[in-house]
């Protein structure tokens, strides 16, 4: 199962391009009709009510999956420490049912790898698929990979010019975030770059979730569709 989509869907910059002539209230359904997954970003900034997740699930195809970005209260404010209550509050708000995909835990760029802290955090995670996106070079170590492998948590392979791209597959699924290779959140991926990512995905030979986060100039949905054409078994064409 290879699912490719975008990080979020509410972008005014897409109005005259991908969403041309599509009313804003139909943006999610329009995008979900073309890709197999979308990453929910608003959940990072504030706790979403269960009714929001139920509404989004109702607007998407039966075989669709959402990834959900974990709360910044857990990752950025508490920095993975003493997060029992915050984790419980966040996960209990999710109401996607069968459309629930992985939960993404994006770490702040100032957070260094600490084995004990990460071990405690991973132990607290509820059942389901989870992925960790570190943004500090200190995570480029076998000790980090081993911890994720032991808990079947995916390391997020990120492509960006401003934080390290650490390529490792640590779980029975892979998770990729493509933020823009040359300009963060902006630059489009070339045919050659998309070919290379398609090759990597095929070589991993496991369930894979890919999200284009180069959203600011509207490249993300088009890059997602192009990569879908290149992979051997995309979930949706």
UniProtKB/TrEMBL annotation:
Report which superkingdom the organism of origin falls in. Answer: Bacteria
Q: Which Gene3D superfamilies match?
A: Protein of unknown function UPF0759
| Pfam families reported for this sequence | DUF72
Protein name in UniProt = Uncharacterized protein YecE (DUF72 family)
